[in-house]
Design brief:
The protein is α+β, with helices and mostly antiparallel strands. The protein is built from nine helices and eight strands. β5 and β6 form a beta hairpin. α5 packs antiparallel against α6. Strands 3, 4, 5, 6, 7 and 8 form a six-stranded antiparallel β-sheet that branches. The chain has a two-stranded antiparallel ribbon with strand order 1-2. The radius of gyration is 26 Å and the shape is elongated.
């Protein structure tokens, strides 16, 4: 190892110590000073006990909730985190069971959730959540679509996109032309994202399933202003499974 790399690693010592404590300790697991020194050596860092004691105190002042114990089982452990394990399990279940996310994206998010806890508790994050007849999304770009739509709404710009359906063999069937609309809101219904927008073709409010949108682009054109008499809450309450159309008053005959 060159002298420059060695010096750089030494300057990163407290950051690697922070990483080791978060990854290898929790309320049930602690790490001893010899183990800390051994772990640091894997990163090419040598450290004296006295310097590490000072670094641990610095991390405590920084806000890391480190508890130290003395005696035969002397060691250090992080006992408080931004997310508790039950909260991470709840988020993991939501990610696993969501029809909005693809299998690939769900796996990626679960891996990121694992990084928010220790290596011991992370094993409990990757658990299988069984939901009967649950079909996961196919469109890998759904979350990119959501981000683009949010930005368009914030910037009050129109968007354009291609829209498609699936046939019986799950093959995409694109509808003709590029759709252009003024996005008003994103809403969640029956575990799917829908875009509520003013659709220029029909000069009316329409709903689009976000997982069936592709090549979503923010245009330079300003979006049509939100209708003054349009009440989004009332509109959503009047739709059935997000199918748009004229509202009709009906009477039930006994």
């Amino acid at each position: 190892m060159s002298e420059n790399i060695k010096n750089t690693n030494q300057r990163l010592k407290i950051l690697y110590l922070y990483k080791i404590l978060l990854e290898r300790t929790d309320e049930e697991h602690y790490i001893t000073m010899p183990e800390i020194i051994s772990q640091l050596e894997l990163y090419g860092i040598t450290a004296a006990r006295k310097a590490l004691y000072e670094d641990i105190e610095a991390l405590k002042l920084f806000g890391l909730d480190i508890v130290s114990s003395r005696g035969v089982n002397a060691g250090y452990q992080v006992v408080n985190r931004d997310f508790e394990l039950p909260e991470l399990k709840l988020l993991a279940d939501a990610v696993s069971s969501s029809r909005f996310l693809t299998e690939k994206k769900s796996a990626e998010l679960l891996k990121k959730l694992e990084q928010l806890t220790s290596i011991y508790e992370a094993k409990q994050i990757q658990r299988q959540v069984f939901i009967a007849d649950r079909v996961k999304a196919i469109n890998e770009r759904i979350y990119m679509n959501v981000d683009a739509i949010h930005r368009a709404i914030a910037e009050r710009k129109k968007i354009s996109f291609k829209y498609f359906d699936y046939d019986l063999s799950k093959k995409k069937c694109y509808r003709k032309g590029i759709r252009t609309c003024s996005p008003y809101a994103l809403t969640w219904d029956d575990e799917r994202y829908y875009l509520v927008a003013h659709y220029e073709k029909y000069d009316s409010i329409s709903n689009f399933r976000v997982d069936r949108m592709e090549i979503v682009e923010i245009l330079d054109e300003p979006a049509q202003k939100y209708p003054e008499d349009f009440n989004l809450s009332a509109y959503l309450n009047s739709t059935f499974s997000m199918f748009s159309g004229e509202a009709e008053e009906v009477k039930r005959r006994n």
